[in-house]
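Example 4.3 (complexes with small molecules)
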Amino acid sequence: MPFPVDRPRRLRDNPVLRELVRETSLGASDLIYPIFVVPGHRVRRPIPALPGQFHLSPDEAGVLALEFSRAGGRALMLFGLPDSKDETGSPGADPKGPVPTAVRAIKDLVPDLAVITDVCLCEYTSHGHCGLVDGQRVLNDASLPHLAAQALCHARAGADMVAPSDMMDGRVQAIRRLLDDEGLASVPVMAYSAKYASAFYGPFRQAADSTPAFGDRRGYQMDPANRREALLEVDLDLAEGADVVMVKPAGPYLDVIREVRLHTGRPLAAYQVSGEFAMLKHAAAAGALDFRRAAWESLVGIKRAGADLILTYLAPEVLPWL
Ligand code: PBG
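Answer. The structure with PBG bound is encoded below.
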């Protein structure tokens, strides 16, 4: 019934009514906090590109995990910066590397916090690509055993879930098979399924020291202009055994999140990436917006689009507001 009978403003009139009819909620168990771990002891070094984020040694990652958990946090995603790099990214599968060491430290201190590990070669290869290279080409099939070995190393250290972000074809299958063969059939895979070749990864590449030495990632990450292709990637990853699928970045790809949400009933994650975080921080620092309201709005928008889980550097800041 049109005006004057229908007046949508009636339900906006006071805070409790607004709360009663709010369609989307944001809770602590929706958030996954990505952190960067480095070798050593007692290291807690600010990352200039990501205000408020740190490079943490495994012991310090444990301390942070405990604080995060006490504040209500439920899950971390770990990225590693190794001591040394090589052509095949083999330091990524070293059980003494920063990620497996941090997984053990965190699980010892806070067993009920979910520890998810990012699986990729770019932090561990001398050339900074997410797979093995032959000249200027990034090889697909030859990269798969190396990714699977890294996932196995993380799972053996006690990771609750492994998350391949490399975008090689067939990597979910390679990881699933190796985990199953090694008696780790119960460790789930969260696939970065629709991962776009995005300019919004800028601050992360400084934080993770993973900028490619030549070329770019457009030969393996998705073209930002494509939406239908995201559904293909999701279907393939699910067929290969992915337990959770992901869209990344999140904010500029809300339509893709929505589309994937309508396409599958499987759990869907979205990654609010480093550039999205940095934009909010810098805009707030310049006085252009209210940080708290803008942060909440950016996350609720991602949930409203259809994500079940959000990877976000905002996690510890927003927890107390939820
Ligand atoms: C590496 C990886 C990247 C991110 C997550 N895993 C960077 C890239 O693909 O270049 C980006 C995360 C962020 O920007 O916050 N495979």
